[in-house]
Design a protein that fits this description.
The complex is a heterodimer of chains A (about 300) and B (about 270). By secondary structure, chain A is α/β, with parallel strands linked by helices. Chain A has eleven helices and twelve strands. Classes of the chains: A alpha/beta (about 300), B mainly alpha (about 270).
């Protein structure tokens, strides 16, 4: 499937492939299990889990990529780091992308390394012009390097960096607009960030959607979150470890009304349920995204 | 909401920009001894460290079991979580692959040598499980990992908890099914070829004689059977023909077992002709 601008592509319902059900997934796909094929349209892989990896995992990967559209979603490009881009790593991702026919590759507006040390997490950037310029410059290098479209995701963050003089959505807008990369919008991260850093999370979430460049939207992520241990009800953690909450579902519907969500991915990385439960949830989310927008009573006050 | 980094004295960074200074600050907050009282920042320290400690537990399963049950084998008498924290303090990860953040654990582990070898064996198994598939140019199995140990950790690796601890502590084990005394022979180290079978994809362990082990090491470093045969002939002070007569069947066995993939190089084909 040759692809031009991914924002014009409608992939449908997707899930993030997990090791815990990889073998089962490949097996059911190969045998054209309708309970799987009727509830799923595409998959997303984290390239770091598959680069130079052989054995049964490679076999499963091949089986899957021969039958379903696949995109790559990395956490290690470290787009915002002041370290040089890791071209050896990027070359391996590019090789994998070619091998499996990935439609596009994405990462996050963050950094995961500094001075050669890996944080194994996504750290926030200050929301300011300097950071925008830095990220845009690196994104353009990445775009030139990959022969498929590249997109950036809005990450969750738990501490606002000093020197920030923009809002988060403004920051994202500047980066995506100037670099002309794709926008991977994570609606759970929108809610987690608005909840953690604002007194009016749902109102801010609506403003968020009004500011970010939806004309560059290529993919939507949705996931669950949890409350930070020991923090009572005051902070949320984006751990991809629970079913999608009602406020996040509501934001999805708001987004669908504004732009139309045609490529939706459910992420579940912690407390992973059965494959069938994940398929059921993504199907439900897909169906409900176009339902009426009246928020549940409990949320109206939060607005 | 009080989650900002307050003014600080930037520590020297390799990038003099404000962005570099900030990233340098985060580096030390996460990996250094300086912790932050601010909830948002301390969370990043916790998240990163939890990832590494989880990876330690996932890869060093048996080692962890022993530490949990018998801290006597650990020099510092620290528990597993404390060991993890100390390991992170002293081994900042430099590889984008999460699992490789714990590569140095066996070497670093301040513990009884048997426990260190057990940890190393678990790392070797991880390498084998995740190694790349062979390509057309490979003549040796690319997943092959060669290890020589002073202790037969591979023989009691799959024991249940009590037997495992007993075996590590006393060098012997017993089960309800069989009583086996493991004799430690320091002058004859246990030489292992650990690999993923190219067809069944199962992890296999082949115990080999020291001379064969040395040949495998040399071949994995790029030597050919011919050049290594010359070396071996010198070591054994015997003729090349004598050595070739030994290597010939060895190559066949190794191909049959899956350690070698094919006749391989021209020189190998000459040997097997």
């Amino acid at each position: 499937m040759k692809i031009g601008e991914p924002k014009n592509v409608a992939l449908g319902r997707g899930i993030s492939l997990r090791r815990s059900f990889l073998t089962e997934f490949a097996d059911r796909l190969v045998h054209e299990d309708m309970s799987l094929c009727s509830r799923l349209d595409w998959v997303e892989l984290v390239p770091e889990n598959y680069i130079e990896r052989g054995g049964s995992i490679r076999c499963c990967l091949r089986s899957i990529c021969e039958r379903l559209p696949v995109v790559l979603h990395s956490t290690c490009f470290s787009v915002g780091s002041v370290d040089p881009l890791d071209w050896k790593f990027l070359a391996k991702v590019r090789t994998l992308a070619k091998e499996i026919g990935a439609l596009w590759v994405t990462d996050h507006i963050s950094y995961s390394s500094y001075n050669g040390i890996q944080f194994l997490d996504l750290l926030p950037l200050p929301f300011n012009e300097k950071a925008v310029q830095h990220v845009v410059g690196r994104v353009k290098q990445i775009q030139d390097f990959f022969e498929i479209p590249f997109g950036l995701e809005n990450p969750s963050y738990y501490a606002k960096m000093p020197g920030s003089d923009m809002t988060e959505p403004e920051f994202i807008k500047e980066i995506v607009s100037r670099s002309q990369c794709g926008l991977l919008l994570d609606v759970n991260n929108i809610y987690v960030n608005c909840f953690n850093h604002s007194e009016t999370p749902l109102q801010d979430a609506l403003e968020y959607l009004d500011i970010v460049p939806l004309d560059r939207l290529m993919e939507v992520h949705i996931a669950g979150h949890t409350t930070l241990p020991g923090a009572g009800q005051s902070k949320l953690l984006d751990n991809h470890g629970a079913p999608v909450s009602p406020p996040v579902q509501w934001i999805l519907r708001q987004l669908h009304q504004r732009k139309g969500v045609s490529t939706l991915l459910l992420e579940r990385e912690q407390n992973v349920p059965t494959l069938d439960e994940i398929l059921e949830e993504v199907s439900e989310l897909w169906a409900m995204r176009s339902t009426p927008l009246n928020p549940p009573q409990v949320m109206i006050q939060a607005l | 909401m009080g989650n900002e980094i307050n003014s600080f004295e930037p520590t020297p960074s390799h990038d003099s920009s404000a962005l570099g200074d900030l990233q340098n600050q985060m580096l030390h907050l996460i990996f250094g001894s300086q912790e932050s009282a601010q909830a948002g920042l301390s969370l990043y320290r916790e998240l990163t460290r939890n990832v590494i400690k989880s990876t330690l537990s996932l890869i060093y399963v048996q080692t962890r079991k022993i530490v949990l049950r018998s801290r006597a084998l650990v020099d510092s008498k620290k528990n597993w979580d404390e060991l993890g924290e100390l390991y992170i303090d002293q081994n900042w990860p430099s590889d984008w692959r999460i699992n490789w953040a714990v590569q140095k654990f066996p070497e670093w582990l301040p513990a009884d040598p048997r426990l260190k070898e057990l940890a190393d064996f678990e790392w070797a198994r991880f390498l084998v499980r995740t190694g790349r598939d062979p390509t057309e140019v490979d003549w040796m199995n690319p997943t092959l990992v060669l290890r020589s140990y002073q202790f037969p950790v591979f023989k009691y690796w799959e024991l249940e908890d009590d037997d495992l601890v007993s075996a590590i502590e006393q060098g012997e084990y017993s089960t309800l099914r069989a009583r086996v005394m493991v004799q430690h022979q320091p002058e004859a180290p246990f030489c292992l070829a650990i690999f993923r079978h190219p067809v069944t994809m199962q992890v296999r362990i082949l115990e080999v004689q020291p001379a064969a082990f040395e040949l495998l090491v040399r071949w994995s470093e790029g030597e050919t059977p011919e050049s290594s045969a010359q070396w071996l002939a010198q070591q054994l002070e015997c003729s090349m023909q004598n050595v070739m007569d030994q290597i010939h069947p060895l190559l066949k066995i190794l191909i049959h077992e899956g350690v070698l993939l094919r006749e391989g190089r021209k020189s190998t084909r000459n040997f097997l002709a």
